């Protein structure tokens, strides 16, 4: 009877499995055991804490909203934070920072040094190229 109860409790706990998370720019993957019912956001949080505890480089920070997890099985789409990690069917993942949107700079607020010449790098390149061609 006692053996039956232990198995029943284990079934309620869910399946646990080892995952491997590779952090872009780091020396090697982080490995730890997760419950299949854990949310992706929780896995990101645990990975960031473990990464920091091990003193790995580059330093990532601890704000989970700044990161995404990708699964090679799922393709190029990042996993949704409120999905369960077991729903992906994968055991290997990639952790990377979310791309930060470029801050728009108003022309009024731009410093004189930042908009010197008033153009993009492409226009600068073409101007300098045309200048070299015409001076020869």
Automatic annotation (TrEMBL):
Pfam families: DUF7054. Signal peptide: none annotated. Residues 101-110 have a biased composition (Basic and acidic residues). Residues 14-96 form the DUF7054 domain. It comes from the Eukaryota. InterPro entries: At4g22758-like (IPR040358), DUF7054 (IPR055482). Residues 101-136 are annotated as: Disordered. Residues 124-136 have a biased composition (Basic residues). This is DUF7054 domain-containing protein. It comes from Rehmannia glutinosa (Chinese foxglove). The lineage of its organism: Eukaryota, Viridiplantae, Streptophyta, Embryophyta, Tracheophyta.
